[in-house]
Design a protein that fits this description.
The protein has 289 residues and is mostly helical. It is built from twelve helices and no strands.
């Protein structure tokens, strides 16, 4: 390469890849990542369905195979919002009724749990006084609270909400307290230097540092809330997914129970993902160590 050629190359600079060529590359990479995340669970589900079909197709099988579930519960799957009056409603209405109870009970537990967690995490006296009580109460099974709540409220609706509240509050309290106690010492030192105290200290130092722990507790709490409401509705009756499952059992409609369990699992997964996305957005991707 002579001097003139080298000078022209320097002036021209590096050759950039045209955007029209980069776009297919980026798209193909996204498709590969999507396939890597979607295909494995689809393959596992297909294998499980095939194994279930083979195991339940024999003459002595007590559960219907997937093909029979689709045939027997096709109307329930394709029309989840039918309403024939009374308690004869589609799965969609039952799920909405359960979600309303979960939303109210979980919201109350989140407010109370975060407040109590902040108190226990910042006050040694509160920790010594309340922690033993919390440790005892959190070991009580959720359904054991149902008779007490029915005796106190004398109504099924607030009793179910109380069961959700008392079930979800403990992981929120514990994780919030751990998050507050693990605020880095450097953050506290900076707050002392700039004389940040009171509500400003909690707002700008404690809450951002403890947020990953708080959302971990919220994720655990929402999962426990969904478990508790399904079990509680089996006992209190009324419109709700738990009642639907119990009523289908009394009517010997095993296929409907299987469809309802699939719906329960999908809704529970969606609730967990929603809280996880909210936590990722609030903490900007940071995670509690």
């Amino acid at each position: 390469m002579n001097a003139v050629t080298r000078k022209a190359a320097i002036v021209a600079g590096p050759v950039s890849t045209p955007s029209a060529l980069r776009l297919p590359v980026v798209t193909s990479q996204r498709l590969v990542r999507l396939a890597e995340s979607v295909l494995p669970p689809l393959v596992v589900v297909a294998l499980l369905l095939a194994a279930w079909e083979l195991a339940a197709s024999g003459p002595r099988a007590s559960l219907p195979p997937p093909s029979a579930v689709l045939t027997q519960s096709w109307e329930l799957i394709t029309d989840p919002f039918y309403d024939r009056g009374g308690l004869d409603k589609g799965l969609g209405w039952h799920l909405l009724a359960s979600l309303r109870r979960v939303a109210l009970g979980f919201a109350l537990s989140a407010i109370a749990g975060i407040a109590l967690g902040l108190l226990v995490g910042t006050s040694a006296i509160a920790m010594r006084g309340l922690d033993p009580v919390f440790q005892v109460l959190r070991t009580v099974p959720p359904l054991a609270w149902l008779p007490i709540s029915l005796a106190a409220f004398r109504d099924a609706q607030p009793s179910a909400i109380f069961v959700i509240f008392i079930t979800a509050i403990w992981p929120i309290i514990i994780n919030t307290a751990v998050g507050v106690q693990n605020v880095p010492a450097d953050y506290r030192n900076v707050a002392r230097v700039i004389r940040l105290r009171g509500p400003a200290f909690f707002l700008h130092i404690v809450l951002p540092a403890a947020a990953p722990y708080i959302f971990t507790g919220l994720r655990i709490g929402i999962g426990l809330s969904w478990l508790a409401i399904v079990a509680a509705e089996m006992l209190i009756g009324g419109v709700g997914i738990g009642f639907f499952i119990w009523d289908a059992w009394n009517s010997s409609q095993i296929a409907d129970i299987i469809v309802a369990l699939v719906y329960v699992g999908l809704v529970g997964f969606a609730l967990d993902r929603i809280v996880a996305l909210a936590g990722r957005a609030a903490t900007r991707g940071t995670q509690a160590s």
